[in-house]
Write a structure and sequence with these properties.
With about 450 residues, the chain is an all-beta fold. It contains two helices and 32 strands. It folds into two domains: about 140 residues, Sandwich (Immunoglobulin-like); about 280 residues, Beta-galactosidase, Chain A, domain 5. The strands form five sheets. Strands 16, 17, 18, 19, 20, 22, 23, 27, 28 and 31 form a ten-stranded antiparallel sheet that branches. An eight-stranded antiparallel sheet has the order 15-14-21-30-29-24-25-26, with no helix packed on it. Strands 1, 2, 3, 5, 6, 9 and 32 form a seven-stranded antiparallel sheet that branches. Strand 19 and strand 20 form a beta hairpin. It is globular, with a radius of gyration of 22 Å.
Length: about 450
């Protein structure tokens, strides 16, 4: 297929400007484990020349040349996937106006969009879906060039529209998402013809400064860069398989001044989730924590909760009760004594509810279900408790918080970028029917590898 401009069909407000950059988490590496989105802070450099990745030019239509790139897709979690979203940036700056995805010589429905990498270099973004089986491998070839016959693209699309100071995104079947320009939480609204899932404009992004006492969080300001100049939100790509929105802002860090922050929200068409990738610059090492907050609708009482620890831990929340799943470690914080802990109780009076059985027990998976009689929101956190102290907090009224702490109040955080990637998946009850995928699958996206020889991937 030939690719339109990624932003061409989005009517923007008169004050809006388009951002050339693409989320760093969309960067590529030769063997990129896409489950590890928080690794976007470590930028990979292409050490081998483009010629080592691409097969020799092949003849396209009317004798024109085309470039063929091998692509290997692997399922590594042992789970059957159903129309699971796949995203990758092709290596190098591939020339030409047309592209197609082939499997066993046959064209496959795919979305190609010209975008730009985080450093401004051009890139070709590929999105498609796969129903690969447990631990299976699929092999594809991408052909790019003016002489290539454009590949097929489904008629459906993830629609992104401007409505005043908000975006409306229609994706994942009948769901419509509302996302405010100033980003009051990952989404300001989620609804279909029968249900709404989120209390409007009820969430937010905040950080904890290393000198702040526990419990104090500072809100991020979106729509302004650290110098106070307008930085409007924009859509970085959209089409039949996925759309992404990019937001820039700043947060005031005492002793360091305003620091740049960015968030990228991705909406796949085949699943009813929003992937939230949040990044914060911290050159002086003053950011001790990051927090994402959202108020879910849950009615009537009680609120049902599942936690993905080493196994599923479930509970019921009434009145002012809350449950917290906590895992990992960070300098200056008291040790948990176990790989993970679940606490439950009224606000301010939490008691252990479940513990890892041994100090060497398996790590927590890092997900949760928040449910009432008709709806479920699944939360998942990338690399939960692996390099930081992470928490998922859920209150009886539907308030959820995802917290990542890098240091306690008596320790200095490591200088450098900080990141937090999480998913919010909105489905109907029962969750086993409505979700059509698992939290474990969300946390283990399919692995993409570009082959050196397109003829032998």
């Amino acid at each position: 297929m030939s690719w339109p401009d990624a932003r061409a069909t989005i009517p923007e407000s008169p004050s809006s400007t388009s951002r050339r950059g693409v989320p760093e988490m969309m960067g590529w590496r030769l063997r990129e484990r896409m489950a590890n989105h928080d690794n976007w802070m470590r930028r990979d450099v292409l050490k081998a020349g483009l010629s080592t990745l691409l097969a020799p030019p092949v003849a396209g239509a009317a004798g024109a040349e085309a470039v063929a790139v091998g692509l290997v897709l692997r399922e590594t979690a042992g789970l059957r996937r159903f129309s699971f979203p796949v995203h990758a940036l092709l290596p190098g700056d591939l020339p030409g106006q047309n592209a197609r995805l082939l499997r066993e010589g046959r064209p496959v429905d795919a979305q190609f969009r010209r975008v730009a990498r985080a450093d401004g270099r051009p890139a070709l973004a590929l999105d498609f879906v796969s129903s690969v089986g447990p631990l299976e491998t699929e092999r594809y070839v991408v052909e790019v060039g003016d002489g290539v016959e454009p590949g097929p693209e489904p008629k459906r699309a993830v629609r992104v529209e401007r409505e005043g100071e908000a975006f409306r995104v229609t994706a994942g079947g009948s769901l419509t998402y509302t996302v405010g320009d100033r980003l009051p939480g990952p989404v300001s609204g989620v609804e279909n013809a029968r249900l709404s899932y989120v209390v409007p404009s009820s969430g937010g992004f905040s950080i904890r400064h290393r000198d702040d006492p526990p419990g104090r969080w500072r809100a991020c300001t979106w729509g302004r860069d650290p110098q106070g100049r307008p930085s409007p939100a924009s859509a970085t790509r959209q089409g039949p398989f996925a759309a992404s929105l990019h937001f820039e802002g700043n947060v005031d860090l005492p002793g360091a001044g305003p620091s740049a922050t960015s968030a990228d929200l991705t909406f796949p068409s085949s699943k009813s989730w929003v992937e939230t990738a949040w990044r914060l610059e911290d050159p002086l090492g003053v950011v001790a924590g990051m927090r994402v907050e959202l108020q879910l609708k849950v009615e009537p009482a009680p609120t049902l909760v599942d936690f993905g620890a080493a196994d599923t831990v479930y509970g019921v929340l009434r009145d002012r009760e809350q449950m917290i799943l906590e895992a990992g470690d960070a300098p200056g914080l008291a040790g948990l004594g176990r790989p993970w802990v679940v606490r439950k109780g009224p606000d301010g009076n939490l008691a252990p509810f479940a513990l890892a059985s041994r100090p060497d027990a398996a790590s927590a998976e890092g997900w949760a279900h928040v449910m009432d009689g008709s709806r479920c929101t699944a939360l998942a956190v990338a690399r939960f408790g692996r390099e930081s102290r992470d928490r998922i907090e859920i209150e009886a009224d539907g308030r959820v918080r995802i917290c990542r702490e890098f240091a306690g109040s008596v320790a200095a955080p490591t200088a450098g970028p900080k990141a937090l990637t999480c998913w919010f998946h909105f489905v109907q009850m029962p969750v086993q029917v409505g979700a059509a995928t698992s939290a474990q699958a969300i946390l283990a996206p399919l692995e993409v590898e570009f082959a050196r020889d397109a003829t032998r991937p």
